[in-house]
Amino acid sequence: MAFDSYEHVDKPQSWDQVMAGLKIKVGQYPRPRGPQLPISAPIDEDTFKAIFTLHDEIVGQLRYTELARLLWERMIVPDQALGAEVYEDFRNGIVTGLRRMAIKTCVYPEMIEHLAEFVARHGTTIEELVLWTTGDIEAGIQAAKVMNSRLPTHLGAILAKNKMAFPKGVSSIISAQKLDALGAYMDRLLAENAGKIKLVVIEDSRKNLERINKNVLRGQGMLDAGHERYLMRQSRIQVVPVFALYSAEGQRAREAAVEADNLIEFEQEMTCLNAINSLGDLLEPRFDDILAGSRLLVDFDGVMVRNGHGMDGTRLLRAQAVWPVIVRACMQVHGFTQTAAAAYIQFSARRMLIDVVSK
Is residue 135 helix, strand or coil? Predict the structure, then answer.
């Protein structure tokens, strides 16, 4: 299956397939032409906020080429033709910078610390291990993030010593719409297997865990398929949620519960979601039965790597990847020095944030 079809994936991909697809994307969006001037000017807080304000506009269909367009129009020069060579280098610079992020620095230490023990304890009872993630597939940025984490390499070295682990394989589903991809994947599993399917999902989003029943039990494109089809799937699929309470989203949810004075209800919900405070919790005896005989899907962002709450985690890496490209483009378009370009960008960011608030 071609990398372009991840959006409609119904079968996990091997790491070799992920790398092959990534090479295609690197060819489609190559690094900018010519030498790239080092940028020493630091990113300011206003520009950081503005970058993620624009990022929020593309979250529904995460395409970083679209983020490049928004950055160009709102922070550099709105009347410059998008077909210009300088814009193409700008767009490719954004993509290249994001593909080169040092994601390894944001991997939870517990992920590395406990992975070998996790494989030794659960590897032979878990049928299949699937990294399940959503992100930019158009330019190969999500695939690059996964590979740059070095987790596939680390896991591969562990599995070389545990050849009986995960008998049905270790792979990934990288999709622009991972819930739709999960529904399609389950359709295929139901068609290929006569018995029941146990699906354990480790996620940092309670909303995604709530949506899984719609996408898995009803099936891809089957929202109007009828009650009988729904009951058939429900009888054959067992979905077991595991919520990553240690994640940035999990911590925000706990803080909100404390502020709303409903911590008891929150803790009850966490029990129902088999919440974990650390990846090391998966080594507790309570997870022996939960994981046994399962297809285990593990989210990447937030579960394996730290997304960040403010100017940290992968949020900081994204801003650091984008910032020098914006500065260089501003210098090239307007003839500014680095200092003047940084000041111009900060002014544009402040103006944009004011416009957002006024709306």
Answer: coil
Tokens in use for 106?
Answer: 């944001």
Q: Structure tokens of 3?
A: 């990398």
Report how far residue 18's alpha carbon sits from residue 6's, in angstroms, rounded to the nearest whole number: 10
Separation CA 125–CA 81 (nearest Å):
57
Give the pLDDT of the chain (359 residues) as one tens digit per residue.
Answer: 233 333 445 567 888 889 999 999 999 999 998 888 999 999 999 999 999 999 988 877 789 999 999 999 999 876 655 557 889 999 999 999 999 999 999 999 999 999 999 999 999 999 999 999 999 999 999 999 999 999 999 999 999 999 999 999 998 999 888 888 888 888 888 888 888 999 999 999 999 998 887 666 655 444 445 566 667 777 888 999 999 999 999 999 999 999 999 999 999 999 999 999 999 999 999 999 999 999 999 999 999 999 877 778 899 999 999 999 999 999 988 999 999 999 999 999 999 998 877 76
Residue with tokens 């814009």: 87
First to last CA, the chain: 44
Contact 337, 37 (CB under 8 A): no
Tell me phi and psi for residue 241, to 5 degrees. -85, 150
DSSP assignment of 191-238 equals: HH-SS-EEEEEEES-HHHHHHHHHHHHS-TT-TTS-HHHHHHHHHHEE
Nearest to 151 by CA among 104, 200, 105, 118: 104
Residue closest to 294 by CA, chosen among 76, 125, 155, 54: 125
DSSP string, 321-339: HHHHHHHHHHHHHH---HH
Residue owning tokens 């803080």: 255
Distance, in Å, from the CA atom of 323 to the CA atom of 345, rounded to the nearest integer, reads: 10
